[in-house]
């Protein structure tokens, strides 16, 4: 049985505390700059409602857009592979507390959510790279089952490090002329794994915070990782609807 949740609406049609997502959604859906969040207990919800949060900058300071609250609207993309894996990272501040999130779909159905790899002194880049590394691990397992896989990542830096730049760096002894190559402890194993399965997978760039459901869910999981300070990669097993998940804090 799913744990009861309480939904605080700070800005919406009728601000207040609601005991079902359906009630809360009616207050925020389509409302300009709505602000809302779910809480596991009535006491926490009441405290949060009494102390309306101030607008803050984005958790991932490397992404310069202002922080926005989520809505239930999403952008659909064609999930034509057997398995589609979305990965994302969050860091607040940058550098600072970092975490990673992953959403896995079988065809067009959400199958698994993962969060973790918390680092109290990480960066947005390390969180994104770890997301891609672990997505490649999930992809390898799917490839071994004969499944087609596409990994979607909103970090062009991570994709280029692992699929392009690493080839030249490796050929030169993992060095580059104009200075240190950062994050090699993640890039090296990710590149090695990518080379093993490159012929059987696709790695695609997807725009972040653009309403792509899988990317948005991976983003929410990266925030859960930071909030829970989960150092392992853990399965998110709470029973929630997509709308409830999207109502969670975003990175």
Describe this structure in words.
With 251 residues, the protein is an alpha+beta fold. It has seven helices and nine strands. The chain has helices spanning 21-28, 42-50, 124-144, 156-171, 184-197, 213-228, 242-246; strands at residues 6-11, 16-18, 35-39, 83-92, 96-106, 109-122, 149-153, 201-205, 233-235. The strands form two sheets. Strands 8-7-4-5-6-9 form a six-stranded mixed sheet. A three-stranded antiparallel sheet has the order 2-1-3, with helices on both faces. Helix 3 (124-144) packs parallel to helix 5. The two termini are 28 Å apart.
Name the overall outline.
Answer: globular
Overall SS class? alpha+beta
Order the strands across the largest sheet as they lie in space. 8-7-4-5-6-9
Number of helices: 7
Note the beta-strand portion: 15-25%
As residue ranges, the low-confidence spans are 54-72
- Please, what is the average pLDDT? 86
What is the share of helical residues? Answer: 25-40%
Spatial extent as radius of gyration? 19 Å
- List the helices and strands in order: EEHEHEEEHEHHEHEH
| Number of E strands | 9
Distance between the termini: 28 Å
Major β-sheet annotation = 6 strands, mixed
Short description:
The protein contains seven helices and nine strands. It is of the alpha+beta class and 251 residues long. The strands form two sheets. The protein has a six-stranded mixed sheet with strand order 8-7-4-5-6-9. Strands 2-1-3 form a three-stranded antiparallel sheet, sandwiched between helices.
């Amino acid at each position: 049985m799913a744990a009861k949740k309480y939904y605080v609406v700070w800005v919406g049609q009728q601000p207040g505390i609601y005991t079902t997502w359906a009630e809360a959604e009616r207050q925020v859906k389509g409302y300009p700059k709505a602000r809302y969040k779910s809480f596991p207990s009535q006491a926490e919800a009441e405290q949060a409602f009494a102390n309306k949060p101030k607008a803050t900058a984005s958790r991932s300071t490397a992404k310069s857009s202002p922080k926005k609250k989520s809505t239930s609207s999403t952008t659909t993309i064609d999930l034509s592979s057997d398995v589609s894996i979305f990965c994302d990272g969050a860091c607040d501040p940058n550098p600072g507390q970092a975490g990673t999130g992953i959403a896995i779909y079988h065809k067009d159905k959400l199958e698994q959510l993962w969060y973790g790899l918390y680092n109290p002194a990480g960066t947005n880049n390390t969180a994104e790279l770890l997301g891609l590394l672990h997505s490649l691990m999930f992809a390898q397992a799917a490839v071994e089952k004969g499944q087609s896989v596409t990994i979607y990542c909103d970090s062009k830096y991570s994709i280029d490090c692992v699929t392009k730049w690493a080839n030249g760096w490796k050929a030169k002894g993992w060095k580059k002329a104009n200075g240190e190559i950062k994050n090699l402890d993640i890039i090296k194993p990710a590149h090695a794994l990518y080379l093993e399965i490159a012929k059987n997978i696709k790695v695609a760039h997807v725009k972040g915070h653009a309403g792509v459901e899988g990317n948005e869910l991976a983003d929410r999981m990266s925030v859960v990782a930071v909030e829970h300070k989960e150092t392992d990669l853990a399965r998110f097993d709470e029973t929630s609807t997509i709308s409830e998940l999207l109502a969670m804090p975003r990175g």
